[in-house]
Amino acid sequence: MALLEVRDLVIDIPTEAGVLHAVSGISFAVERGETLAIVGESGSGKSLTSLALMNLLPKRAQRRAARISFDGIDLQTISAGGMRKLRGNRMAMIFQEPMTSLNPAYTIGNQLMEALTCHRKVSQREARDRAVHLLEKVGITAADRRLSQYPHQLSGGLRQRVMIAMALMCGPDLIIADEPTTALDVTIQAQILHLLADLQKEFGMAVILITHDLGVVARVADTVGVMYAGRLVETGAARAVFKHPRHPYTRGLLDCIPVPGRTVPGMPLGAIRGQVPNLIGKLEGCAFRNRCDFAAPECAGAIPLAHPEPGHDVRCVRLPELEASA
Amino acid sequence: MLAFTLRRLVVAFSVALTVSVIAFVLLHLSGDLATSIAGAEASPAQVAEVRHQYGLDRPLTVQYLDWLWRALHLDFGNSFYFRDSVVSLIATRMPVTLTLGAISLAISLIIAVPLGVLAAVFRGTIIDRLALTFCVLGQAIPTFCLGLGLIIIFAVNLRWLPVSGTAGWQNYVLPSVALGWYAVPAVMRLSRNGMLEVLSADYIRTARAKGLSPAAVVLKHALRNAIIPVVALAAVQFGFMLGGSIVVEAVFSMHGVGHLAWEAIARNDFPVVQAVVLILAAIYITLTFLADVINALLDPRMRVA
Fold first, then answer.
1. Using the beta-carbon criterion (under 8 Å), do B301 and A103 form an inter-chain contact?
2. In chain B, how long is the greatest CA-to-CA distance?
3. B125 to each of A231, B129, B134, how far by Cα in Å?
4. Which of A85, A86, A299, B122 has the most neighbouring CB atoms within 10 Å?
5. Complex ipTM
6. Model's pTM, two decimal places?
7. Domain A4-90+170-325 is of which CATH architecture?
């Protein structure tokens, strides 16, 4: 059984202009120890998806699903108290903004130790030792001294390392990292990603990595889900998706970045024309069709899931023609 | 933290010095003191004698430095009207005003802060609406109306509490409620807004993602950050209460500093007016200084500034 299973997740946000369909029926599963990367542009619904898994959606957002289960526990019917026991304990989250995600009024040590003491009956001494141990694990020097420092005394990279250490305090089975490197300097991004990958191997956690950076995905993910306008348009093994992207959107995304062995030297990088569709109101057919070079009349109808190879799902009705043209 | 405190102390002292100059100059701009002291029927010779007797014929800077030097030794001279030293007059009146102010502030904080927090946590619900309605009512009733209303209900009709005077703790209940009521709306609104802002902060999401209970999220992570602007407001409100106690002291016939200031102004009792202005300013400056220090304790980022 998969550690996390999501079937037909829908997130609607009522607005004054109508209902915004932020996420419209996505399904995925994460195995123990595996890394799933969810890739997409801003507004594709990937961050809301991660919050939905933690039951941390904003109040006005409405969540529905055929199934959301974590280690066999149904997260749709779980009590608020039961969910609190999972949060931070068995499923932890790392957020995008390390600069604002730590409470400015409390020391690093206080915030780290609290993550453990609110779930386990441990002494202050033990919590402190664990915090020092994990700060060292995430590559922070003079960890003991850092415990008494405040967030504003640390750089963004250090704060994100603290956030990672905080997520690890209870030894979770699943870590959801929502764009953990987006707010950081490019030189720090690689360090943080390597750190996450190393920690995952060492602790055997499953990781859901939410990102818009395909370069990041190529390095660390086992499985990739490409999101567009609240739908998963392509999912599959990372290697397969990168080697042979099927959906026109995935192809377009990959053409936008330099990939060794794929990009032809001297040729300009691609760009996807047009803009993400407005998600307010009902959207029939393929959401990408107004930007797609392969669009045809049938793209306005229902789009069934195609399986070009085992474990590789694509939502595109033009797949045969695409394969022929490639 | 020590460097921060010292810097704030220097600022506080310079403000106090400025206020003393202003208080001194204003009084001397208000007319010829010697004429006022000697009285309207005094002959020019008598006025000249008074001027010499009170040292008013010396240069202004000398008079100021002399006055300041004595003020620093808590010597404000004698009242023209009461046959008593200014210091002993204020010393007997000050406890009444300070007690009244402190109880009023405590009452308004005890009501307003929890109300603001509740309104923010239950934003948009009936609790929020009731709290805001309560606020509007608070703002709409003038202090003297409320004071008289409280006297009619609790002192005259129910006979639970005394009408006026300063005999025991019972005398302070009604005036403190009347005076504290005035600060409730402002403090409540600021607590509510501060709380709303903090509740949508990223670190609150982090706290919830950790699996903390809603109470721990609100009371530990949110309140400490939301209360920071309230501390500064409370200091200012306490200053207003000391000033505003003049009305309440009049309504409840309490002999505090407010009452004294009112009497002194009515009788051209300059040494008293000057001393009251300086002492109230000094209290105000002390409060602002304390608010800064408390805020620095609450928010480590301020200790650098």
1. no
2. 85
3. 34, 7, 14
4. A86
5. 0.86
6. 0.80
7. 3-Layer(aba) Sandwich (3.40)
